[in-house]
Design brief:
Elements lengths: L17 H11 L2 H6 L4 E2 L10 E6 L16 H6 L3 H21 L6 E6 L19 H16 L9 E7 L12 E2 L3 H17 L5 E4 L3 E2 L2 E2 L5 H4 L10 E2 L5 H7 L7 H11 L12 H12 L5 H17 L19 H13 L2 E5 L11 E4 L21 H9 L4 E4 L3 E6 L5 E3 L32 E3 L5 E5 L5 E4 L5 E4 L5 E5 L11 E6 L2 E6 L5 E5 L2 E5 L5 E8 L1 H9 L4 E7 L19 H13 L3 E6 L13 E5 L6 H10 L33 H4 L17 E10 L3 E10 L5 E11 L10 E10 L4 E9 L5 E3 L4 E3 L3 E8 L5 E9 L9 H4 L1 E2 L5 E3 L1 E5 L6 E5 L4 E10 L4 E10 L1 E7 L6 E5 L10 E9 L2 E9 L2 E9 L1
Parallel strand pairs: 2-3, 3-4, 4-6, 5-7, 6-9, 11-12, 11-25, 25-26, 26-27
Antiparallel strand pairs: 1-2, 7-8, 10-27, 13-16, 13-24, 14-15, 16-17, 18-19, 20-21, 21-24, 22-23, 28-29, 29-32, 30-31, 30-35, 33-34, 35-36, 37-47, 38-41, 39-40, 41-46, 42-45, 42-47, 43-44, 43-46
Helix pairs in contact: 1-11, 4-5, 4-12, 5-6, 8-9, 9-10, 12-16, 13-16, 14-15
Length: 945
């Protein structure tokens, strides 16, 4: 007899709701199996027919790390398009490539870690390239579009499952796993949370990744905001995935917990569901979870909650319904449509910053193309491997003809002579030596080894002429004549072996250090000097070689040689995304590296018709007034060169817009670790100086007229309408931007704030009406006195134009709202963190699980101001809840001598609070000022009468 077919378990039944199916599957898993699911690489459960599952496929601007894929412009370049519909199509293309690549390589994951929605608050942040904008509204618009493209349009099943990075207030690489971002409530709610919130609420987000840093003294991986904020924004189960190595950081570098079991329990109960640590080895994480369970720090229910969230994502991805998954056959890889889209995105990302009429270039123009990036198509840490490649030089050759284009890279051509009189020499490489880093794909490209199959450098009587480029701060690369960069592999030998600088620890950078009459050559990846040995040239801790640097031709001379006879000079300058400004390394200045400043000056001296193209992951401070034109584009991916050439030639009118302020110099910047955008007047929202180029700026080859502004205020929204007309002679895009400004604010408000925007394509003479429906809640601010948003009644300016400063139309509307009320301090007291203004303080954690306190920065002196405190008919005493040691002085603004409360004996620990009391007389509504002295934490202030 034939054995009966076992019944289909409910979790395999596609007709049941996901929630019931997840309940069934959870009930079938053992505790050990559920614990194993908490690691990034969840193992298969063969007895239930469950495949392994991996969280975390990088997909910031294309599928990253896993070999060849379509490479789109960097995220900051996608932000510069100001075009959500374009970015949605990019997200869709990326998700289709993820599906196609997974069909042939099971290492590819469908849980994609993208996009990055950290706001580009500070232009020196090393990861500026990963974000979209300094503005939360623009960031959320672009991020929402990208996540919808990644998710796909099916109501039930997702093509990929996007995870937003990096929660929260994360804009520094310097000490990124130990520094704390002090974020006051207004900045938290009006700025940092907002980009995440609006993107999550749009419905195409599967989860978030906490950042390495701490916020208000507490690591993001145990943030109460995951529960108090994030999970209240959607009914979907969100999967929170830790950043790589961050679970161990809670003990090893942050010392926030004494044991890994405590750290694991705290992060799991705070809301982290998947732990990325120790590569593919889940044994350490699972051992820590079991230890926490054994110690009673966790329950099986805590584990179930996290596993449920992971399973929810897996069900949405169609894993358990292969016959129902509508995305199973929708993969597409390197298609003509994807190539065309990569070019379209690169074209739309180009921003024309200045133009005296030299652009677009006339047909037949003779060009000199110079600069360190003129013949480069650079990738960053989160790029895939190029299938197609277009450099600016190649694009201009194709567009104008190679016979009309002269080229000089501008590197210094050098020889390095040893103390013995020989020269460094690059031996011939065997054939088939042109391997590309990362072409084979890697789950962790940081583990990719350098090449040892090529012969090490030697010395001989004539030597090899090397191309030296100085990328700033004395950081050099040296390249052999065949295009390969000098690099150091694990065996310590120096070889010409790399196609580009790259890797988690870059092995292709050096520094020349003056030594006697010559130079030592330090390899920055190992920190060791270069030594010449009988076996070849290598890095070593002893016997460094002293080299004489012989410049055969300087970069300036090469530039001068090719520029004088050209009609127009195009200087392509910028950064290498792996050097001086990248993940783990912030920049130190807005200036171009001196080498590139010299090349630009040489070009401008030789030919005043000089166009500067900045190809970079971040803003620079340059002097544009002496240049005929200036353009900026992020590293534009595989089609960057073709796109730039088409813009320069006028085949496409530029319409990219700056997604962040370009400051005139370093003096305009706050400290990198100052996250108080309100108090220190940061970003276009609050900056009161004169920027080099403002937020939203970008020129066109056409001109546009704005007219007919009308505003109709309804019960919940304001409809703003106007017309835009192309008054130029070419079809072009315009980005119409709508801003608002509170005219009579009771608290510091933005100078202007983006409410909405639209990118339009208009033919010559074409006019189009633009309408925006703005929710009245967009005019509100976070009122610290009430602990929530409030729309303040009064007049508001509505500003329409082509940038945040180029305002063409304006109207003023008066909105009804809710008047502010004094703080009921006699009844409710004051949370220390609810200040209106501060100086010299920082916010810290009141406890390890929740709450905030305020402390003087570096244990010094700080002040807090609380406006409009209602003391009713009178108070007789004040109390403060404090920890540590020091003094609290409480006074009325302009009033008598303060009440002084001194904590002379230190409390046992920073979370051991005690209450101090002192006489204090006040009545009516008054401003309250508190001064803190010494290393103490103030949590609460109370009053009695």
């Amino acid at each position: 007899m034939t054995a009966p077919t076992p019944p289909t378990p409910p979790f395999r039944d596609p007709h049941l709701p996901f929630a019931k199916r997840i309940d069934d599957l959870l009930s079938r898993l053992t505790l050990d199996e559920k614990v194993s699911f908490l690691h990034q690489f969840a193992p298969a459960v063969e007895r239930l027919g469950l495949a392994g599952f991996r969280t975390g496929q990088e997909a910031l601007h294309g599928v990253a790390w896993m070999g060849p894929a379509t490479v789109f412009p960097q995220a900051v370049g996608l932000g510069a398009t100001w075009n959500p519909e374009l970015v949605r199509r990019v997200g869709e293309a990326v998700s289709r490539e993820v599906r196609a690549m997974r069909a042939r390589d099971e290492r590819i994951g469908l849980n994609v870690w993208a996009p990055t929605v950290n706001l580009l608050r500070h232009p020196l942040w090393g990861r500026n390239e990963e974000g979209y904008s300094e503005d939360p509204k623009l960031t959320s618009a672009i991020a929402t579009a990208y996540t919808h493209g990644l998710r796909g349009g099916h109501p039930t099943y997702w093509r990929t499952a996007p995870v937003l990075k990096h929660w929260l207030a994360h804009n520094n690489e310097t000490g990124r796993d130990v520094t704390s971002s002090s974020v006051r409530p207004r900045v938290l709610h009006e700025y940092d949370l907002r980009a995440f919130r609006e993107t999550v609420e749009a419905g195409a987000v599967a989860g978030v990744m906490p950042a390495y840093n701490l916020v208000n003294g507490r690591p993001n991986h145990v943030s109460p905001y995951l529960r108090e904020q994030l999970r209240t924004w959607t009914e979907e189960e969100l999967l929170v995935c830790s950043d790589a190595g961050a679970p161990s950081n809670l003990v090893d570098s942050e010392h926030y917990f004494d044991t890994h079991e405590e750290a694991m329990a705290a992060s799991l109960t705070a809301g982290v569901d998947s732990f990325t640590d120790h590569g593919t080895d889940g044994s350490k994480i699972t051992a820590r979870v079991r230890g926490a369970l054994e110690r009673g720090l966790l329950t099986e229910a805590d584990v179930d909650t996290a596993v449920r969230r992971q399973l929810s994502v897996r069900f949405r991805l169609g894993e358990f319904d292969p016959g129902e998954d509508p995305h199973a056959g929708t993969g597409a890889f390197d298609t003509p449509d994807h190539r065309a889209l990569a070019q379209e995105a690169a074209e739309q990302a180009v921003v024309l910053l200045r133009n005296d009429g030299v652009l677009p270039l006339a047909a037949g123009t003779r060009l000199a193309v110079v600069g360190l990036l003129a013949d480069e198509c650079k990738l960053d840490w989160y790029s895939g491997t190029l299938i197609h490649r277009s450099t600016p030089l190649e694009g201009l050759y194709e567009r104008f003809g190679a016979e009309r284009v002269e080229f000089a890279e501008g590197v210094d051509r050098v020889l390095l002579r040893t103390a013995a009189g020989a020269f460094l020499a690059v031996p011939p490489a065997p054939e088939a030596a042109d391997a590309v880093r990362g072409a084979e794909g890697a789950l962790d490209p940081a583990l990719l080894a350098g090449r040892t199959d090529l012969p090490p450098l030697t010395t001989d009587a004539s030597g090899t002429e090397l191309a030296l480029a100085d990328w700033g701060e004395g950081v050099l690369t040296l390249r052999a004549p065949d295009g390969r960069y000098l690099s150091v592999a694990e065996d310590g030998f120096l070889r010409a072996s790399a196609d580009q600088p790259g890797g988690w620890v870059v092995q292709e950078t050096f520094r020349l250090e003056a030594h006697g009459n010559g130079h030592l050559l330090r390899h920055l990846g190992t920190g060791h000097h270069v030594s010449v040995t009988a076996d070849g040239v290598k890095v070593a801790e002893e016997n460094p070689e002293v080299f004489e640097l012989i410049v055969v031709e300087s970069g300036e001379d090469a530039v001068t040689r090719v520029t004088a006879e050209a009609d127009v000079v195009v200087v392509v300058a910028g950064n290498d995304p792996h050097i001086n400004g990248r993940e783990t390394e912030d920049r130190t200045t807005l200036r171009l590296p001196p080498h590139q400043e010299r090349l630009l000056a040489a070009a401008r001296t030789a030919n005043p018709r000089t166009v500067l193209v900045l190809t970079s992951a971040y803003p620079y401070a340059v002097e544009p007034e002496h240049l005929s034109a200036v353009l900026w584009t992020a590293h534009g991916g595989q089609a960057a060169g073709t796109a730039l050439a088409r813009v320069l030639a006028g085949d496409v009118s530029p319409a990219g817009r700056l997604p962040q302020t370009w400051y005139a110099g370093d003096a305009d910047l706050p400290d990198l670790l100052d996250y108080d955008v309100i108090g220190s007047r940061q970003t276009y929202l609050y900056f009161e100086g004169t920027p080099l180029f403002p937020f939203g700026h970008g020129l066109s080859y056409a001109s546009f007229a704005y007219a007919g502004l009308t505003v109709a205020v309804g019960e919940d929204t304001a409809r703003v309408s106007f017309t835009v007309t192309n008054t130029g002679e070419v079809t072009a895009d315009e980005v119409a931007q709508l801003y608002a400004r509170a005219v009579e604010p009771s608290v510091p408000r933005p100078r202007r704030e983006l409410l909405d925007h639209r990118r339009l394509t208009l033919a010559p003479g074409e006019r189009r009406e633009v309408s925006f429906d703005v929710p009245l809640s967009a005019f509100a601010f976070f009122d610290v006195a009430r602990g929530g948003p409030r729309l303040e009644p009064g007049p508001y300016d509505l500003l329409v134009g082509a940038s945040s400063e180029d305002v063409r139309l304006r109207a003023t509307v008066t909105l009804d709202g809710e008047a502010g009320a004094p703080r009921p301090v006699l009844r409710e007291g004051l949370a220390a963190v609810g200040f209106d203004e501060q100086s010299g303080t920082e916010i810290v954690d009141r406890s390890k699980t929740a709450g905030d306190a305020v402390t003087p920065a570096a244990g010094g002196t700080g002040e807090l101001l609380y406006r409009a405190c209602d003391f009713g008919s009178g108070t007789t005493a004040v109390s403060v809840e404090v920890a540590g040691e020091g003094t609290v002085e409480v006074s009325l603004d302009g009033g008598p001598a303060p009440a002084v409360l001194t904590l002379g004996t230190p409390t046992p620990g920073p979370y051991d609070y005690t209450t101090l009391d002192a006489p204090f007389t006040a009545d009516g509504v008054r401003d309250l000022r508190i001064r803190l002295r010494g290393p103490l934490r103030l949590a609460l202030v109370g009053f009695s009468g």
